[in-house]
Amino acid sequence: MTTVESSLSRAQPGLRARLDVPRRITLAAALVVIGAVALLLGFIVWRGLQLFVASGVPVAQIFTTAWQPDPLSAGTNYGLLPFIGGTLAVMAVAAVIATPLSVGLALFLAEVAPGWARRIVQPAMEVFVGIPSVVYGWLGLVVLVPYLRTQFGWMGFATGFSWFAGSLVLSLMILPTITSISYDAFVVVPADMRSASLALGTTRWQAIRHVVLPTAATGVATAIVFGLMRAAGEALAVQMVIGNAPVIPTSLARPVTTLTSQITLDMSDATGTWNEALWTMGLVLLIISLTFVLIIRRLGRRSTPA
Amino acid sequence: MKRSLTADRIATAVLWAVAVFVITVLVAIIGYFLVESIPTFSVSFLFSDPSDTAIGGIGPVLWNSVYLLVLTMLFTVPLGVLGGIYMAEYAGEGRLTEAIRFSQELISSVPSIVVGLFGFALFVATTGWGFTALGGALTLLVFNLPLLMRLSEQAIRAVPADERAASLALGSTKWQTIRHAVLPVAIPGIVTGIVLTAGRVFGEAAALLFTAGLSTPVHYDFSNLNLLDPRSPWSPFRNATTLSVYIWKSNSEGLGDFVHQVANMSSMVLIVMVLIFNLGSRWLGGALQRRISGL
């Protein structure tokens, strides 16, 4: 096919180039994506830097812990560490809860499940993906938070709104992400490698542990990073159950806050420097997700030659 | 040997337990909303106006969700499908292609609240429109476009090379080939992609808070066809609180019994809507596939 095409273009290059309107139109459509990214980066970086540029807040200040944002009160301080710390903490615990379940489920689907079980679990995962994040948040608010308050008050869950509630809700939301990407990593492990292991007399579990898991390790790592990325960026569901207290997270049972939930809460009311600080939080979020994209790219490159 | 057999049995049991556990959680979630909403649900809930004092309806917000969906797809479908054609048929190996791919990856990783901030800066503040349905739709375009582009590209790439070769061998130009040989075969995949992309509009909320707005919905007069009148439900230049945003709003308001109940029923409606889109996309793709291959 390529040869037909290239000989055609060699035969009449001028004419082809001039007549190729469809190529230009489709290219223009594809370029909209680059335009959107450029605009997005431009706006978020520009507005995110105003805290330092326009209001003269020293960059070092955002790495402090005190959040006193109201410009009308004396002594403002725009410490973003509680938000960055909260985002990382909630994300990490969500991944700790979701990873064993997701990887286990992916292994089940790829290695263990008989056909009928797969026909139940796979559509169920699609339903999982389809549940919108506000619905998880609402469920967390009316079921999980009261449950933690009434049943686990003795463990320090004074109100139920907590780091743990946020992580648990998030873990449900990232479970399908980690499952589907690790599943893809498991199914591409060549069947020959499994057969070779089984032929040596290993059990299925030994084949999984010593052959399938090591071969798919990079893919599973990619899956977890995708999960972390989604967890760091999720806003509304977390905001609804986390309690929104701007403190450095120290206890799973206490309210904390995240970058996303503070933006959600304050954006419509905050003015002046306070508002600028919210844009800076947006910029920090963007930097976090860019970091994840680069990690995923690096992992992808590592897995390609294998 | 004995020990490894025991380990194998335990591992198998654990993997089964994980699967059963996850399915149970899912059934519990869906079950919760079914049990909570069915007793008070009626069809009029879907169409009537909301109320501040009793269980009202979700007519206006449901309308806004549908409206925003159509408006978003009006931009997303042509751009996404054309972009997908470029990536599948024309794109070479160069820097430009790499830049487009990187942009696609990047946007799909940016948190939706950040996309919302961007939409606010551009479509609310810079344009001076305020909170509008159009601003919300353009914001959603930002992450729907790369998604549909990728799904269309995959659908087009899946078309067998023979189809193209046969058409080119008959002397068709590249575009004639795409138009008459490639696209008809790729249509089921593209349609599946469109419906999947559309389904995401229903669930999205974070990107809409500061773009389409979250004012309390009012009664809509559908006979008002003036597209520039902010009170007309047909106008793109008006505040458009969607169903998902409405559920989120319930949490900031007092948790009166009826607010609670409305949010439960709204969640159920939202889940069902998204499910219809997800299952519908596969069904529609399959149906088109059968129709085309049957000819």
How do the helices and strands line up, and which of them pair or pack?
The complex is a heterodimer of chains A (306) and B (295).
Chain A: H1 2-11, H2 13-19, H3 21-53, E1 67-68, E2 77-78, H4 81-112, H5 115-130, H6 133-152, H7 163-187, H8 191-199, H9 204-233, H10 236-241, H11 259-266, H12 272-303
Antiparallel strand pairs in A: 1-2
Helix pairs in contact in A: 3-12, 4-7, 4-9, 5-7, 6-7, 7-9, 8-9, 9-12, 11-12
Chain B: H1 2-37, H2 44-47, H3 59-90, H4 95-109, H5 112-126, H6 133-157, H7 161-169, H8 174-203, H9 243-252, H10 257-294
How is this structure best described in words?
The complex is a heterodimer of chains A (306) and B (295). Chain A is mostly helical and 306 residues long. Chain A has helices spanning 2-11, 13-19, 21-53, 81-112, 115-130, 133-152, 163-187, 191-199, 204-233, 236-241, 259-266, 272-303, and strands at 67-68, 77-78. Chain A has a single domain, classed as MetI-like (MetI-like fold, Orthogonal Bundle). The longest helix of chain A has 33 residues, at 21-53. With 295 residues, chain B is an all-alpha fold. Chain B has two domains: 1-40; 48-294, MetI-like fold (Orthogonal Bundle), CATH 1.10.3720. Chain B has ten helices and no strands. In chain B, helix 3 (59-90) runs antiparallel to helix 8 (174-203), helix 4 (95-109) packs across helix 6 (133-157) and helix 8 (174-203) runs antiparallel to helix 10 (257-294). Chain B starts with a helix and ends with a helix. The mean pLDDT of chain B is 88. At the A-B interface, helix 1, helix 3, helix 4, helix 5 and helix 6 of A face helix 1, helix 3, helix 4, helix 5 and helix 6 of B.
